[in-house]
């Protein structure tokens, strides 16, 4: 606590296992929530301690709810930005270029004079 255990969310989802999370207020308490929303799997997101307990029990006892959660993972995760490595790389490269441009405005022009851009 207060960290959201990113690997403890991503790894079960990658194996099709539902994850229950309790949404907190701070960044570290919302990482699993963010992952589930980006995967399109929100049926196991709790907003209170009582909700968290009820969802965990429901997953254990309600086979149709557990199946629906697994189906949401199977449909949502492959289409989510969480597994789009190429798009992530493009966004990261663009962020680096923007940061360099803000921190050292002339650096890109000086480094690339007469050469094609490294990113693109």
Q: Your description of this structure?
A:
This protein has 120 residues and is mostly helical. Helices cover 56% and strands 3% of the residues. The chain has six helices and two strands; from the N terminus they run H-E-H-E-H-H-H-H. It has helices spanning 7-14, 31-38, 49-61, 63-76, 85-103, 107-111; strands spanning 21-22, 45-46. A two-stranded parallel ribbon has the order 1-2. Helix 2 (31-38) links the parallel strand 1 and strand 2. Helix 3 packs across helix 4 (63-76). The radius of gyration is 20 Å and the shape is elongated. The N and C termini lie far apart (40 Å). The model has no long low-confidence stretch (mean pLDDT 88).
Features:
3% strand; 6 helices; 120 residues; two-stranded parallel ribbon; mainly alpha; 2 strands
Mean pLDDT over the full residue set: 88
Q: Looking across the biggest beta sheet, what order are the strands in?
A: 1-2
Quaternary structure classification: single chain
Which structural class best describes the helix and strand composition?
mainly alpha
């Amino acid at each position: 606590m207060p960290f959201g255990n990113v690997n403890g969310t991503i790894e079960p989802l990658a194996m099709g296992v539902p994850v229950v999370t309790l949404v907190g207020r701070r960044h570290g308490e919302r990482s699993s929530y963010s992952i589930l929303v980006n995967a399109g799997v929100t049926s196991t997101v709790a907003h209170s301690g009582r909700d968290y307990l009820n969802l965990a029990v429901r997953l254990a006892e309600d086979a149709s709810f557990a199946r629906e959660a697994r189906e949401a993972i199977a449909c949502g995760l492959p289409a989510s930005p969480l597994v789009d490595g190429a798009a992530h790389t493009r966004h990261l490269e663009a962020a680096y270029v923007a940061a360099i441009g803000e921190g050292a405005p002339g650096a890109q022009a000086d480094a690339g004079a007469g050469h094609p851009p490294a990113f693109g």
